[in-house]
Amino acid sequence: MWVFGYGSLIWHPGFPVAERRIARLTGWHRSFCMRSIHHRGTEEAPGLVLALDRAEGAVCDGVAFRVSPGAEEHTLAELRERELVSSAYLETRLPVTAGDEVLECLAYVIDPDHVQYCGGLPLEEQAQIIAQATGGRGPNRDYLWNTAAHLAELGLADPDLEWLSARVRQLTAALP
Fold first, then answer.
1. Positive or negative CA dihedral for 108, 34, 60, 154?
2. Residues carrying an active site annotation
3. Which distant-in-sequence residues (6+ apart) come within 8 Å of 100 by Cβ?
4. What pLDDT score was predicted for residue 176?
5. Could you give the dihedral angle defined by the CA atoms of residues 145, 12, 92 and 2, in that order, rounded to the nearest 10 degrees?
6. Which tens digits make up the pLDDT trace of 60-69?
7. Cα dihedral sign, 165-110-116-38
């Protein structure tokens, strides 16, 4: 069983991993397009979390994780509890390219018809939200910074996340 990580799964998979591979998913992009009302925000003050948003010609570089043999059933249950908490994600299987091999990976993509979907927000608006939101798993900014740092460690460029990281650092430095 393979799982595609593009956000927090990269730095916190939460399941036993037998193998990791840098992988590319085509037709989708990593985007702060989901309002977070549980993990990185609240219903009163939603944060933003990453999701795979479908887009013509887009690509998303991330990590394909092979679940340790024997842990597939438990991993699937844990991922569903973590990722499907508000039904804004859709569980699907998508082909990703890892080197010269195509792997079918479990992936969680945004439901563009869900009330939490907010694709197309300007980067400045995203930064303003992320700088201030906090949810059950902590400040929204930590989620951004951890994801951006781990992408950089892997050599995976994401200009939007890099810009957001720098801008949110500016905004939070100015907070009382």
1. negative
2. 81
3. none
4. 67
5. 130
6. 999 999 999 9
7. negative
Extents of the domains making up the chain: 2-173
Q: What is the pLDDT of residues 48-106, one digit of tens each?
A: 999 999 999 999 999 999 999 999 999 999 999 988 888 899 999 999 999 999 999 99
Q: Which helix (H) or strand (E) holds 13?
A: none
CATH fold, domain 2-173, is: Hypothetical upf0131 protein ytfp (3.10.490)
Report how far apart, in Å, the C-alpha atoms of 102 and of each of 9, 29, 50 are.
Answer: 20, 18, 24
> Once rounded to an integer, what is the mean pLDDT over residues 3-27?
96
